[in-house]
Specification:
CATH class of the largest domain: Alpha Beta
Number of strands: 9
Distance between the termini: 82 Å
CATH superfamily of the largest domain: 2-enoyl-CoA Hydratase, Chain A, domain 1
Helix content: 25-40%
Shape: globular
Number of domains: 2
CATH architecture of the largest domain: Alpha-Beta Complex
Number of helices: 12
Amino acid sequence: MNWIDNFVRPKIRSFLSNKRDTPENLWVKDPESGEMVFYRDLEANQWVVPNSGYHMKIKPADRLANFFDGGVYQTVAIPAVPVDPLKFRDQKRYTDRLKEQRAKTGAEDAVTVATGKLYDREVTAAVQDFDFLGGSLGMAAGQGIITGLETAAQRKTPFVLFVSSGGARMQEGILSLMQMPRTTVAVLRLREAGLPFFVVFCDPTTGGVTASYAMLGDVHIAEPGARIGFAGARVIEQTIREKLPKGFQRSEYLYEHGMVDMVVHRHNLRSTIGSLAAILTKAEAPGELTNSAPAVARASLRDVALAAEGDDDDLAPPSAAHAE
């Protein structure tokens, strides 16, 4: 053995092992413009690209921290459900897929439920995470939505759902589809309690989720550029053999055609939902909310107020008002 093997190589190995790891995600590419944005700038801007305004996906923890007062909230435990009841397997076992997703996201399933304050008013919120198997609706996700709705009814708070999903979870078959009527019943119970249900559509929201609880809110709000629909655009084009209009299934297109009540920038969601909650619960809005909502939101708020004043027990969604 010579001095190179005994001294130089151990020194090199020691230097390499002590070298600080460089994060691979210092810069993030804007999918719309191709612009490279510094990671920390994007995080500080609630994952909205500063120049283009493109709304990127945001983690449930970041979403809830930006939504509740002071970023303070308490998560709600979701009852356990059977795992892999159909013993499903495709290229991988379903149980293995779940383990991978749980390790990647740090969550048990696609839905996180939390309680906290929004402008000093108690609110219950749920976030459906697209990063967990495409936010797909299985038994655990369905139980999460039901738990959120039941928690809101028990605590007598408004319920806010940030939804993003590819639809039903194929690995659970008919048991996944059964979550559609189950969640619908839970929405009806919240409505019977006279409490408002706000749905915020994030990119994307499709399939059986759109066909059930996502379209049963009292007020439907969409983030800019979000894809909202049932079947994919390509499937629709192949079925009807026609070219779809530009921007079809985007939140702005749905707003123009009365499918959602308003399109609200992520930075304005707190103030908009805070104002809506004050109107629908007939509570006094905090002074800081009086002029904070965007113009389009304020126009829609008047329609919500008129609908709420018509019948104390009627919290059905108002028709979309397209006032400028």
